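Deliverable D2.4 — example input (structure tokens):
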């Protein structure tokens, strides 16, 4: 009887230990997957925001001579042009991308050609899943106020940047991107954009010949 009781206690102890080990291992796996997801997200955000550039162009199919900056910067979304490594001559070194949140999934959708809406990009559109379980996406945009004599008041954080309807052709000096997860985690990335040059705006864009598209 005593031996049976001791054996039962040992078996119970081993069971509890194995349960704890299993829970710890599952927690480690979850944290590892979160870290991998954050690292992938960080690389993409860094590639886009830190290399963002002004891009001005006009629609060759329109009679209007107006030029448009390729940027739509709202509190919950961002469409912008950015430089990236050249993989082939047809693709070029500029991508035209947008962060899109759909059904809790965060995507980066991009094209190697400028467009007014995604229907124009058609088959040249690529979409990459960045993260899942996202509740909210928020952006802030850094502007500069030259009219204020107080240097501390010259930096202005805006939740809405000028859009294609504006005469402005520059982009924010910096962009803050906040991701709110469905489990209440919050991560914010702050990146200085590549810059607003006085000499370059990376346009006007000229399309390739038909046989090279």
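Example output (designed residues):
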């Amino acid at each position: 009887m005593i031996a049976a009781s001791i054996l039962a206690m040992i078996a119970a102890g081993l069971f509890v230990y194995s349960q704890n080990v299993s829970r710890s291992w599952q927690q480690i796996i979850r944290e590892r997957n979160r870290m991998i997801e954050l690292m992938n997200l960080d690389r993409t955000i860094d590639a886009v925001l830190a290399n963002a550039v002004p891009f001005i162009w006009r629609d060759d199919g329109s009679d209007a001579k107006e030029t448009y900056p390729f940027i739509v910067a709202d509190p919950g979304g961002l469409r912008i042009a950015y430089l990236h490594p050249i993989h082939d001559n047809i693709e070029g070194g500029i991508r035209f991308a947008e962060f899109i949140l759909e059904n809790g999934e965060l995507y980066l959708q991009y094209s190697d050609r400028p467009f007014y809406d995604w229907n124009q990009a058609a088959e040249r559109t690529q979409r990459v899943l960045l993260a899942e379980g996202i509740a909210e996406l928020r952006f802030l945009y850094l502007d500069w106020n030259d009219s204020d004599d107080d240097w501390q008041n010259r930096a202005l954080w805006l939740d809405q940047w000028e859009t294609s309807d504006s005469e402005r052709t520059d982009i924010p000096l910096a962009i803050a991107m906040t991701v709110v997860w469905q489990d209440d985690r919050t991560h914010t990335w702050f990146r200085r954009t590549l810059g607003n040059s006085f000499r370059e705006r990376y346009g006007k864009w000229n399309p390739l010949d038909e046989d090279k598209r």
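Residues 48-212 form one domain.
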